[in-house]
Amino acid sequence: MGTKKIFISYSRRDTDYVKSLVEALRKQGFEVWFDKNIRTGTDWDDTIETELKNADAIVLILSKTSVASENVKDEISYAIGLDKPVNPIKIEECEVPMRLARKQFVDFTILGPEAGFERLVNDLNFSLNEAKTNVPKGTFTPPKSTESTANNTNKPSKKIAPYLIGGIVALILFIVFIVNCTSETVEDSYQNEVEMLSQDISPEWEKAINANTINGYLGYIYDHGPNDINYQSAQDSIDTLMPFLGMGMYSEGTDRYFVKNLYTDMNGDTVYQEDDNEIPKKGDIITALKPVALYDTENADAESVILEPGEKARVLSVRMDGEAVWVMLQYPEM
Fold first, then answer.
1. CA angle at residue 32 from 53 to 247, to 5 degrees?
2. pLDDT of res. 150
3. Burial classification of residue 75, based on how many CB atoms lie within 10 Å of its CB (0-12 exposed, 13-18 middle, 19 or more buried)
4. What string of DSSP letters covers 79-146?
5. Bridge partners for 325 per DSSP
6. If DSSP codes are grouped into helix, strand and coil, which group holds residue 326?
7. Quick one: what percent of the chain has pLDDT higher than 70?
8. Which class in CATH covers the domain with range 5-127?
9. Is the distance from CB of 314 to CB of 322 less than 8 angstroms?
10. Distance between CA atoms of residues 65 and 296, nearest Å
11. What tens digit of pLDDT does each residue of 308-325 get?
12. 139-144: long-range contacts (C-beta < 8 A, 24 or more apart)?
């Protein structure tokens, strides 16, 4: 495996975790950069921008603080704008931002750090057109959580405890008073908001929601375009209907196994219905022209699933192998 540059986007609260991850990634042959490498006095924004441009892929740490960090959001938006592969990993329970919810992230909270790290390495290799590697057991061991230190803070002395209790009781009574005084106003405001939301649901969008099919949402996108208020919701709904992952051959030489349904042109503008015969890109929706075998992304020896003609899938990444074009897909239940 050639040396590939990885940029780590994270929150400072997760520094100890990231240091362990960086060390493990470097053992796998990656060249890893994170902002601890910035020299004192160096312009921060310029350095971040340069390193993002130089990176071959980005690893995003998803945690309670990182998803709320404006710096992290800026880094990922810039990376997506550069069309860099973004590989999110979830290290604790948190709300994944809407823009990243469509991306396939590795959930360390479910897989565990060891299996999660192996999956991350193989996802990076796939997105960087590198061969799959075996990750030795125990390569990545995250530090123990330090959240328990919050429980070690000093308890208030008995002398001030009564005053604290009295203050809390007074605060509760004040809140109850305010709520009672404003309940009618809040109720009216809520009713108005419900009425406004109901007015925003057009008959066409309501029809698409009720049908809840890939073709129904695609039809809505065809008719209303990317500037419609429900465009992103339609895209997200399509992804919800495609919960499975697999890898299949898009084309080999002049033989094509798929046709595009939804894709973007060279300027990033959304194009519908007319196929441009170009290699697909991440985010495209494609339809099988003939039976296509889709292989498990984690176990190539597992029995393949056949995507039947007419079935649609979403392109997550593209890989070239000689004259063959392979795509990692998310696809619906067969």
1. 80
2. 33
3. buried
4. HHHTT--EEEEE-S-----HHHHTS--EEHHHH-HHHHHHHHHHHHHHHTT----PPPTTS--PPPP-
5. 251, 320
6. strand
7. 74
8. alpha beta
9. no
10. 33
11. 988 999 999 999 888 899
12. 139/24, 139/27, 139/28, 139/114, 140/20, 140/21, 140/24, 140/113, 140/114, 141/20, 141/113, 142/17, 142/20, 142/21, 142/91, 142/113, 143/16, 143/17, 143/20
Separation of alpha carbons 88 and 69, rounded Å: 15
Contact assessment for residue 220 and residue 208, using Cβ atoms and an 8 Å cutoff: yes
How many whole angstroms separate alpha carbon 61 and alpha carbon 68?
12
Query: What single string gives the DSSP state of each residue in 40-85?
Result: TTS-HHHHHHHHHHH-SEEEEEE-TTGGG-HHHHHHHHHHHHTT--
Q: Are 288 and 310 in contact (CB under 8 A)?
A: yes
Cβ neighbours of residue 168 closer than 8 Å, sequence gap 6 or more: none
User: What does the domain layout of the chain look like in residue ranges?
Assistant: 5-127, 242-331
Q: Bridge-partner residues for 89, per DSSP?
A: 61, 106
Residue located via tokens 């590939």: 4
Instruction: Report yes or no: 304 and 313 within 8 Å, Cβ to Cβ.
Output: no
Rounded to whole angstroms, the Cα distance separating 332 from 245 reads 9
What is residue 156's three-state secondary structure?
A: coil
pLDDT of 53 higher than 90: yes
Overall pTM > 0.85: no
